[in-house]
Amino acid sequence: MTSPDALPRALDVVVIGGGQAALAVGYYLRRTGLTYLLLDAEDGPGGAWRHGWPSLRLFSPRQWSSLPGWLMPPGPDEYPTRDETIAYLAEYERRYEIPVLRAVTVRGVHREADGLRVDSSRGDVRARAVVSATGSWANPVLPAIPGAEAFRGTIVHSAAYAGAASFAGQNVIVVGGGNSAAQIVAELSSCAQVTWATVTPPHFLPDDIDGRTLFEQATERYRAVREGRPPPPARSIGDIVMVPSVREARARGVLTAVPMFTAFVPDGVVWPDGNSATADAVIFATGYRSVLAHLAPLGIIDAAGRVVVDNGRAVAEPRLWLVGYGEWTGFASATLIGVGRSARAVARAVELDLAIPTGA
Ligand code: FAD
Q1: pTM of this structure
Q2: What pLDDT shows up at residue 234?
């Protein structure tokens, strides 16, 4: 199937998004007889990875960073770079001829008697089923900290971090205890004065435990829960993987975190002991929430900013499915290796629901 130039008036399935989650859904929809199209707000392939900072390194090893059907190709390092990931997703889309219309922003999904109406920047399309796969990158979380409005320096989320150059020579505080914060501290520490602040001490994985082990442990826990066995203890998927840049920063002795500051003052921050320190910039690597504003017209987003789903299907709107986002839509659904399982289940459920015989 090739990508159309214009938006059709009606389709069996509209997939909102064009990142890895949407592509995985597209991969499985190819095998059905359904008409479908991905609508993606980006100018080109790659989803959120297009907005990652240039030195961003995945914490999942190459083979564990792959979508269904085709492994990420070998490269010079075990951990893929941002650009390798974008190239892989672009090639995946081309290889499987997944139809994507860009750049199209979905503004709202509305109930109609015979399906859902998807209101987009290119007009309306009617769909018998909608799969939302819009990720979380466009919804960064910034904690509310007293005094922030008076701070004269720069406050930025890691979603908008574009590399170390603009912070050279500055006093920078990096906030957050996960992989993003560790990688940004590692990069900035070569050209800026960096302080790393975390709410709880960061947890580093041993050098010989990589992202693959995390996924294996998580999968074993998932199986155990499904089979009613007590789950084995597992390390957190948010633990810091010692990718090369982080190891190198540790060797330089710059990977030491301090307890989180309590407030901003105009020229810096206040530490828990009451002392203040100047800062030119604070970078918050403090996570994301799901991007769901386009589903607001359906009135199904709960107080936690999620939709109640049963195996990916919205309980309050059964013509809608959600893939990606986080564990709440499916086990490891927000990872490259894990999203295939959710996508397969959702594509199958959509196919059964629309009761069209398989084409392949
Ligand atoms: P996205 O990649 O965000 O794609 C969503 C797409 O939907 C985007 O193209 C967006 O433009 C589009 N969109 C959004 N709203 C609309 C709309 N209204 N209309 C049309 N289009 C819309 N996972 C791993 O497996 N391994 C890793 O090492 C790893 N590292 C990570 C590092 C960081 C810093 C982060 C933030 C995440 C990491 N992840 C990793 C998690 C996950 O793989 C990524 O977040 C991934 O981008 C999620 O893919 P997605 O397709 O769900 O969402």
Answers
A1: 0.92
A2: 60
